[in-house]
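In response to reviewer comment 3 from the previous cycle, which asked for concrete evidence that the modeling workflow produces usable outputs, we include below a single protein chain processed end to end. The sequence was submitted unchanged, and the resulting structure tokens are shown without manual editing.
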Amino acid sequence: MESSGKTEDFSSGFSQEFIKKFTQFTLPDCDRRAFIRQYLAENGIQTTEIPIAGKKHIFVNQSASAYSPLFRLKTVIAHYDRASGTPGANDNSSSVFALMDFAIRLKNYKGIHNIRIFFTDGEELDENPEISSSGEESPGCKVNGQSNKQTKNQSGSQIFSRMGAFGLAALFKKAGITNDDVYVFDCTGRGTIPVLGETILPPGVPAKFYAQYKALEDRAKGIIRSASHYFMTLPVPCSDNAGFLVCRIPTVIITMLPDEEATSYARNLLLNKELRDFVTHRKTSTSSKNGSGKTFSQTEAQLKDLLPQTWKLFHTQNDSLQSLTFQSFAITARILDNLAASKTML
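The workflow returned the following structure tokens.
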């Protein structure tokens, strides 16, 4: 686990244009899908809407000259939906803006970058889905340690298959696209410490997939390290990465935390052995219910108090522009630019 750096000041350094656009994007009545497409179109970038299972994903069209079959493709994802009735500034407007501006930079990129960008819909449909339509567990996302059969019977519905990212991942798998490096960016607008999500692959996963995932994890660490002096590898709540992992497509998730929160969380993980299980198996935002829909027990409530404050802002009115960190966007931009520059031979 890499150590963290010094805390930076929050909510400073944003340009007036950024504040104007970002505020528009977080207004209650904003058509966020139309906003993204218009934002990119104004910068000469065309997009394609991809409807899958009632969700509408956005694919960024890029020049064919930016791709080479000699190198591994890198798919970069950020979900654009938000929890109903909230601004969704960090979750996940921050990453959406990071990827939109990244797409603009790629327009003038010299040479091959092999980057494929998607903005996904439906991540917030269920805060921490546990199973796929086939009843298969998502890595690191169980429901209170129960079996797939028990969970499916209790849920009464195929929870995971309704998530937008799962539909996109299933389309990838059907098309034979299983050798991409997939990077999910979620909640990257607050703090100065990049956090690579720690994924615990379940027992029995094929050796080939395990090796592919570990190789991707190593590449991700190298890319983050080249962009930031400090980063951590920590367990984080499931996001769009879970849908791809269930489809056996290697995927990592990158988020951000303030220095003191990341350090405190890492310390709490060492002192409280149940905390890691709580994060990967249950809901971790302001919800008062766990992954099985039951009200938190006293122990669960105590564990929730040990989570980073940033996560406690999710799905609330306090997930606003005022909670963000200007430096977060600069660090995320460096990670993305270094990702574009990286090349892995097939």
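Residues 163 and 297 are 27 Å apart (CA to CA). We consider this sufficient to address the reviewer's concern, and the full set will be provided in the supplementary archive.
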